[in-house]
Amino acid sequence: MRLEALFRAARIPVPEGAGERDVRSIAYDSRRVREGGLFVAVEGFHRDGHDFAADAAARGAVAVVAQRDVPVGVPVAVVADSRIALADLASEFFDHPTRRLKLAAVTGTDGKTTTVHLVSDVLEAAGERTGFATTVDFKQVGHVWENETRQSTQEAVEVQEFFAELLVAGGTWGVLEATSHALALRKLRGCEVDVAVFTNLSPEHLDFHGTLQRYLETKAELFSMLARSADKGVPKTAVLNADDPRWRYLADRAGGARVLTYAIDAHADVQGTILASDASGSRVRIASAGASVEVPLPLVGRFNVHNALAAAAAGLAAGATLAQARDALARAKAVRGRMERVDCGQPFSVIVDYAHTPESLDKVLGLLRPLTRGKLIAVFGSAGERDRAKRPALAEIAARHADLFVLTQEDPRLEDPATILAEIEAGAVSAGKKRGSDYLVIDDRREAVAEAIRRAQPDDTVLLAGKGHESSIIVGETKRPYDEAATARDALRAAGFAP
Predict the structure, then answer these.
(1) pTM of the predicted model, to two decimals?
(2) Mean pLDDT, range 26-50, rounded to an integer
(3) Does residue 499 form part of some domain?
(4) Distance, CA of 194 to CA of 145 (rounded, Å)
(5) CB of 374 within 8 A of CB of 458?
(6) Cα Rg of the chain (Å, integer)
(7) Can you say whether residue 192 is alpha, beta or left, with left for phi > 0 and alpha for psi between -120 and 50 degrees?
(8) Are residues 474 and 391 in the same domain?
(9) What is the CATH number of the domain that holds 255?
(10) Which domain holds residue 81?
(11) Helix, strand or coil for residue 74?
């Protein structure tokens, strides 16, 4: 693509001498620049892309887009916001794929990954060909692979490229996790949304957003995008959890889009009733527009019923029938790292879950408590350089539900690990718990998991919370390989159990 055409379409000034150059790719990481690439300098949280513009030029960049002039020997276009420029350039470069591909996006504090999977399942039961991008994995019309990036939502270049590839693969619907960070950092600018789904909201990422209201306002941007998105023959729809009081605020932000609510307790357009539930799942009645179906949902917990209702509502918004939603949900499979059981023949349960917020930990422990005949043991930590206010709250919740809990590391990043543990432990102390008898503090996560498993007795449940599907622990700026389920299996084998 000619640089002049690309820049003009993205409303970026064309630097002198750059217009006739061909652009073969776009990169925001200088290490990914190849001959003929365009480099966009983005100010990151630990690194400033402007400092690497010269490296990008040396690797073959034909031009640089930046927020200030940088002396690099190739033309430089100066813009007010590099992230907006990156999104606009990516949309143009990949020819606006979501103007043709129908798109559902899921936002909320918890349940996004599972809900994306379930929405995809419902759409496929209705005959659509789907792809999705989640914290855990990616899918392109039947081909699924692991997300190893540690990003729930990719940068704008990867987002647009993913959907362009999905179109080429014959996809008719894309389904996407829309995180608050992605919305705030303009990663989804240029995405044309047809169905926007809200799961729930609880305090999270307040280190980034500042206040819960700002966090909510950022989530609301997804619903504002509905009115600005291209018409693809699907009614623009906001699918909202009426059991969460913030749904009305989001409905107001949806403009003229249709609002479709779902709930268990509140009155809603898609009404769920839990008929029975146990450790294998729930039997749920889903009613909408005068019709109803019963679903044997093979996912455990009330929160998964909410996720299933969200998927059913999104499917209905996209043209699926209630019967098709029932068929898809009855075949649902747990997402890796979400209530994942690790079984090596031991006489107690070991469960790996991604719960890393106070609300999600409360839900999971609250679910496991009545299902556990023996002791409930929890292992968890709290990520460095993330919301510090939640740290004591995590321990307070564990103190309320668990017989024993082990505080350990999650992703300390550049923070002092000892400080993180001390801030979590403050919640245990305030709850009146004593170190050594009610809880343990073990810095090394592998040793923490092993100790919890060594202490487990028949009929106990060991919950390993916070890491879920992730394949690394971030220490400093280094990703150290780590797999929670594999660590648990190693500990079980060391304790004498065979897989």
Answers:
(1) 0.86
(2) 91
(3) no
(4) 25
(5) yes
(6) 24
(7) beta
(8) yes
(9) 3.40.1190.10
(10) 3-93
(11) coil
